[in-house]
Amino acid sequence: MPRGRIVVHCDASVKNGYGVGFAFKASISKEGETKSGFRGTKYIQHQMKTTKAEYISIVLALEKIAKNIEKPSNYRLVIYSDCEDAINEFGDSDRESYSDYDKLIKHYCRFFDSVSAFWIPREENTVADSIARSTLERGYEENKA
Fold first, then answer.
1. 85, 94, 19, 16: which is closest to 54 by C-alpha?
2. 12, 91, 94, 97: which is closest to 56 by C-alpha?
3. Strand order in the sheet with 114-119
4. The pLDDT value given to residue 129
5. What are the structural domains, with CATH classification, of the chain?
6. How remote is the C-alpha of 96 from its chain's centroid?
7. What is the SS3 assignment for 16?
8. Would you say 72 and 63 are in contact if contact means Cβ atoms under 8 Å apart?
9. pLDDT tens-digit profile of 98-137?
10. How buried is residue 100: exposed, middle or buried, by Cβ count under 10 Å (0-12/13-18/19+)?
11. I want to staple 26 with a disulfide (CB 3.0 to 4.6 A). Which of 8, 11, 64, 126 is the partner?
12. pLDDT value at residue 90
């Protein structure tokens, strides 16, 4: 039986010519109290469609949380994203377009008691959005020649 819950808000910011900034913010609740929270970011100088970038932000969050939480099997993981297509693809096991990422998602989901993913309006994902945008801008500035 799970003893806690991890709530993750994921987002990605894509800008042609700049690259992609990925971000997530997680809060960890145990026994009804929020014990801790953390965030993760990554920048890549690569072009991709927004839906794929949003989907990858979910993969990055799963990976970091699974590797950094003691006994992730004690937690239910709840993922929120403002990209409805990414959330739909998260639950679509018949799709092949992101198969390498799908394998990673399946691998990391096994670490947790349960995993669910939900779409939320952009207005409810402002923190992750802000982190993703600043990651993109910072990454671009550091990598431009």
1. 85
2. 12
3. 33-44, 19-30, 4-15, 75-81, 114-119
4. 92
5. 4-70+83-143 (3.30.420.10)
6. 20
7. coil
8. no
9. 568 888 888 899 999 999 999 999 999 999 999 998 999 8
10. exposed
11. 8
12. 77
Instruction: Give the separation between CA 145 and CA 143, rounded to whole angstroms.
Output: 6
Six-digit token string for 91: 């639950």
pLDDT per residue as tens digits for the range 28-78: 887 777 766 778 899 988 888 888 898 889 999 999 998 888 889 999 999
Residue found by looking up tokens 């377009």 in the block:
97
**Whether pLDDT at 144 is above 90:** no
- DSSP annotation string for 63-86: HHHHHHSS-GGGEEEEEEES-HHH
Residue 42 φ/ψ, nearest 5 degrees: -160, 140
pLDDT at 46 (0 to 100): 84
Predicted structure pTM score? 0.87
Q: Helix crossing, 50-68 with 99-109: angle to 10°?
A: 30
